[in-house]
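Weekly sync notes, structure subgroup
Attendees: PM, AL, DS (notes)

Item 1: joint prediction request from the bench team. They want all two components modeled as one assembly rather than separately. Inputs as received:
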Amino acid sequence: MQLSVLLVVLALLSVTGYYLGRSTAVRAVDGRVVRLHSVPSYHGMYVALWAGLPALLLFVLWGASENWLVMQMALAGLPPELTSVNEQALNLLKADILNLAHGVTTGRDSHAAVKAAAARYVELHSLSRWMLLAIGAAMAMGGLLFARARIEANHRARNKVERVLNLFLVGCSLVAILTTIGIVLSLLFEAMRFFAVYPPLDFLFGLHWSPQTAMRADQVGSSGSFGAIPLFAGTLLITVISMAVAVPVGLMSAIFMSEYASPNIRTALKPILEVLAGIPTVVYGFFAALTMAPFIRGVGQSIGLDVASESALGAGIVMGVMIIPFVSSLSDDVINAVPQSLRDGSYGLGATKSETIRQVVLPAALPGIVAAIMLAVSRAIGETMIVVMAAGLSANLTANPLEAVTTVTTQIATLLVGDQEFDSPKTLSAFGLGLVLFLVTLSLNMIALKVVQKYREKYD
Amino acid sequence: MTDLAQQGSRDMTMAHPKSRYQSAEFSARLRARYAAEQRFRAYGIAAVSLAAVMLVILLGSIVSKGYTAFWQNEIRLTVTLDPAELDPQGTRDPKVLAQGNYMKLIRDALAARFPEVTGRNERRQLADILSNGAPFTLQKMVMADPSLVGKTVPVWFQASDDVDQLEKGYIDRSLPEVQRRVNDLQIKALDSLRQDGSLHAGFNTTLFTAGDSREPEQAGIWGAIVGSFLTLVVTMGLSVPIGIAAAVYMEEFAPKNRWTDLIEVNINNLAAVPSIIYGLLGLAVFLNFFGMPRSAPVVGGVVLALMTLPVIIIAARVALKAVPPSIREAALGIGASPLQTVMHHVLPLAMPGILTGTIIGMARALGETAPLLMIGMIAFIVDIPNSFTSSATVLPVQIFMWSDSPERAFTERTSAAIMVLLGFLIVMNGLAVYLRKKFERRW
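Output from the run, pasted for the record:
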């Protein structure tokens, strides 16, 4: 409650600050605005920023540290025999205090001291909120008055405001870098924890995948073996099938659209590919599991083949269909980038259209097409929902497309959706797989993007 | 001699001796080349048609599986709202009314309607033609209008999912009874109900107003739609301002050096990172490190914002690039600061393009499933989420969860949910196309 009040107060003060700053600036030069260094609205923004920003920073910092601080203070009041325990028990204790504080019935009888701590937590929490509200509002008010006092004819308000805005722009462009760093660090860090309990070589080259780890020492049937080769093989198999569908179809439709189709036909056909590209993957997954897989199974049975109901073929074909528009639009771009003069030269020598395409345009566009296929492969490797819904869970090491295989992404999804504690090798192995997946797709993308860039430069 | 030679050469031209361009071999080759040309063209047409056929099959199979989910069979019973069961003291206190034994009233009504059914087992089977939620329907009705207590009123109840599927023709009546999910006794009762107009199919409002449920007939997508909406609000609130600001910086202000090159390469790569990786990031950083709540739209929104950010940045940069430099030069020439130039002139002109890219990015975020599975938005949640931190699920995840359910009725509802999702996506993409057409500007 206090938080939203503070935000409203900040917004109001900023808006007031804006108008106040503007009018102060105009008054400072007796209405002769030309004498101001910056136009009045910059003075207004200057005051508004002083009113809003410092308090907002405080708000963010406070919000980030509040829960931790309050919890420490609540724990400090507990008798030492309750708090001097190992980390897990301490976390449990904290969870108990939080639950009691939020009025959630734990179903467990709590120690009186814990109840007292919870009460103190609630009290301190609300105190902290009120303090934040008071300090934040005071800071905003102070900032407003301070900035207003500094307004005069020569005040360089524009430069100051623009510096703040520039910093904001730079900060925003750093988000992308931070995301990458976050991805790399979180994957590396969790994968290291996995490799601490399971040797990385066994993970990368092991032939047996069965992630059921024993929760108790005496449990049977839980080998906990994390050899990822079957997953890589399964991913490869499904990727190959999907490429066998997507590359010829996507490439040929790109050729048809850019070389043969008249503009009218192109505008009529483009939406088909765009709709295919816009369909969410979960829909493809549903289609693969409920329509494609039974269909393939039926066909297989009618010609006497034994097809698994979660065959790699079904998932692969549907994934191929999903990737058709991707291949097609990327190849369309590269084919269009081939200069017309090459085609004209070929026609001048008497070549037919298809000869020109096959012997002049495609070789000229080859690097770009290869890059497009690499991007498509990376997309197929990273695709999750289709394989989660339509591919199997058992890790078979097979090259037979009629059998069920599992993939890296399927395993990541299933390992992390279950009810395992977060520290078990089973869940951590998902991050090991994630790391491999990230590295493979990243290198494919890097190479492909480099190639595309080089290729563009060649014909520009 | 010369004459002869001339004569001879004239004879030769007059006789038009066959040149190698007219030889049988050559024309055969020409025919082969033209045939190859035709074949190649046919491959192209075949490829496009294949894509079209797949699209038609995909949409066709979903519509044909799902269109029946938009209506739901209901059964009318005449229920006596016995005050002795509902409100013995006659206080009409809502608390007392909420506690009433509505199931017994329904059983009584069934017994009155079908007096020929006697056995305990048979009666239970008979009650199974109604949804499990029937007592709640009755309870809600009485709570809304306590004056009904003591009256005998006709009430429409939802049929159970098996009856619903039978009525829609998905359960084969000719199967032997043991293999059928609806037994003979129930079919006889249903036939009798149908004869006096007590069984009809109405528009399935539950599908659009309820949250998730284990019972297909009580399950709806409203909870998921609200969850999707909350998630997308967070996504948009973060990714649009940050994305536009980053694009403006990189396109208009950034110096050309290694550092900005790195940012650029980085953004292009982020756009191609598999979405599930973003889910892992969300799980490791937001849930485990920052301790944010599981299943909350705010976390989902942040993860999706990180995912759509590169898309928006790339689209915004393209739009900014399309604004001709003369605009910038003119603004700078009359004394605008670089920031004023961008804010007052370049950005407004690039806005339609940015908006189009944004809508497409949002459409992608709306259809995304995998990263949200990682951060626990796959929980079974009955309540409609009411804040950014309450547990929620989103439409694609709801589709994923329902598609796993064995009941035939859920398959139907999954398809219906897919149709709704596709509807939203079509509207969003249509809007993007419309904006592009309307504001498209050639300089």
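Discussion: The CA atoms of residues 139 and 145 of chain B lie 10 Å apart.
Action: AL to compare against the crosslinking data before next sync.
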